Amino acid sequence: MKLNMTSMKQAMLGQLQQNEVIANNLANINTRGYKKDLMFFEVLKDNDTNSKARMATDFEQGALTQTNNPLDLAISGRGFFTVQTKDGVAYTRDGHFKLDGNGVLRTQQGMAVLGEGGEIVLIGEDLKPEQITITHNGEIYLGDVFIDRLLIQDFEDYSQLQKKGENVFVVDDSVQAKEVEELEVHQGFLEEANVNPAEEMIQLIEVQRQFESIQRMVRTLDETFRKAATEVGKYF
């Protein structure tokens, strides 16, 4: 009985973790380029009721939405925009960019977007957004003048990417980035989060039902133990 109680306690904790993951996915429905998280439960041994929770990120592409803003960019297929954070280089699928007062291309959070030559700077007299052209292979032009090429990188194993906050990913120093084999950048588009609200709500309801079901089982067992202890106590 002790094993059953322990198993049910772990199951309840697992359901709480699952609930948090789903709630976070739903909270990021409107976050550009957001990649939803999934929770898996692995049985450690064939005859062991204990299980280990593991979270993974689903890198499936989100839908592309046209904005007609020249500084909005979306990647179709594999690859990540490279940005400079205060802690080093990071990667993102969120292409909702802006220009700062010095003409540096930045994320909405203020991180510099990197090109093959470093920070991308767009300066021109009476600069207008329609003067900026970004091709499918990431080349940036100001009028007819070539400025730089977006540094868009890819990885063999996406499980090595770790969420860092502010909608960016980081990798360990030992992980090598590589060029995207078939790069396709869309100017004037943004990638939506790959979260399906209907699916997430169904999962959330199912998790809550399972939690309540386990909770009832725990109460039943607790009641059984109490009655058993009372009955045994009559003979002593």
UniProtKB/TrEMBL annotation:
Keywords: Bacterial flagellum, Cell projection, Cilium, Flagellum
UniProt-annotated location(s): Bacterial flagellum basal body
Main localization of the protein described in the UniProt heading: other
SUPFAM superfamilies in the cross-refs: Flagellar hook protein flgE (SSF117143)
Stretches assigned to the Flagellar basal-body/hook protein C-terminal domain: 187-229
Domain Flagellar basal body rod protein N-terminal: 14-35
PROSITE patterns per the UniProt record, alphabetical: FLAGELLA_BB_ROD
Matches recorded under Pfam families: Flg_bb_rod (PF00460), Flg_bbr_C (PF06429), LlgE_F_G_D1 (PF22692)
Keyword Magnesium among UniProt keywords: no
GO biological process: bacterial-type flagellum-dependent swarming motility
Occurrences of domain Flagellar hook protein FlgE/F/G-like D1 (ranges): 74-141
InterPro entries to which the protein is assigned, alphabetical: Flag_bb_rod_N, Flagellar_basal_body_rod_CS, Flagellar_FlgE/F/G, Flg_bb/hook_C_dom, FlgE/F/G-like, FlgF, LlgE_F_G-like_D1
The keyword Plastid belongs to this UniProt entry's keyword annotation: no
Similarity comment: Belongs to the flagella basal body rod proteins family.
NCBIfam families recorded: FlgEFG_subfam, flgF
Protein name as it appears in the record: Flagellar basal-body rod protein FlgG
Source species of the chain: Caldithrix abyssi DSM 13497
